[in-house]
Amino acid sequence: MAEAVSFHQEPETQLLILHPSSFRLFDSYCHPDWLSAKRRKFYDNYMEQHEDEEEDWTRKVLLKEGWMGRCIEAGRFLVCGLYHYVGSCLFLGRE
């Protein structure tokens, strides 16, 4: 069962639907390869000091704001799969 929440740091929150200007949240949960050089250096330094912590990007899926509308249009819940990527709404980097 899905439930809308406003606090992204809750452990139960797995999908984050982001507005294109949500750079702070994007930087917090994206794969490190998508970070700017400056943010990647900060990330690498942080992870050296916190080696035992689970990385945030492994716990959340980032989706573009249009994902819900695409689900409604399709008449089904669009999820990641081999041949489609959540209705082309998977956030794969800053666009």
Keywords:
single chain; 95 residues; alpha+beta; two-stranded parallel ribbon; 3 helices; 2 strands; elongated
Give the topology, please.
Elements: E1 15-18, H1 23-29, H2 37-49, E2 61-64, H3 67-74
Parallel strand pairs: 1-2
Sequence of secondary-structure elements = EHHEH
- How are the strands of the biggest sheet laid out side by side? 1-2
Q: Helical segment tally?
A: 3
Structural class: alpha+beta
Shape: elongated
Q: Cα distance, first to last residue?
A: 31 Å
Assess the beta-strand content as a share of residues.
Answer: 5-15%
Largest sheet, strands/sense/barrel:
2 strands, parallel
- Give the low-pLDDT segments: none
Radius of gyration: 14 Å
Helix content: 25-40%
Mean pLDDT: 78
